[in-house]
Amino acid sequence: MPAIIARDMLLEMDSLGGFDEQYFDLRRRPNFAVTNSTDLGHVRRDYVLEEITAEEENWGDSPQFLVCSDPSSYWKKVMLVDTNRQMVMFRSITLDPLYKPKKTIRNGADWWLDNSMIDANVQQMGAMSDALETFLR
Fold this sequence. Notes:
Blueprint: H1 3-15, E1 34-36, H2 42-52, E2 64-69, E3 75-82, E4 87-94, E5 102-104, E6 112-114, H3 122-135
Antiparallel strand pairs: 1-2, 2-3, 3-4, 4-6, 5-6
Helix pairs in contact: 1-3
């Protein structure tokens, strides 16, 4: 979707209190690791980008991404931004070979694409909202 529309939707959610602490997911592991493409060296960045994208995808010559760990170590929540075309994609990826519906990201890869809508918690979406704001500057 256009990154500006995603940003505006996330900003509206924030203005309506959707990122307030009262909505945090505290039942499971509430803390999660965040991998931001801007914090990675070239080699690590390319490795992570390959892990979260399919061979046939084109995210431009300077894509940005944020990867959030999940309460289940079998899952990650991902935001990809094509900074040239100003497009964004939100997705979940899984290591679970029994999960359906899933799509192969790359032949021989450990991770699969969850072929349904992302189900990120408030903390993860807040991190993505913050990162998207910086990626669009």
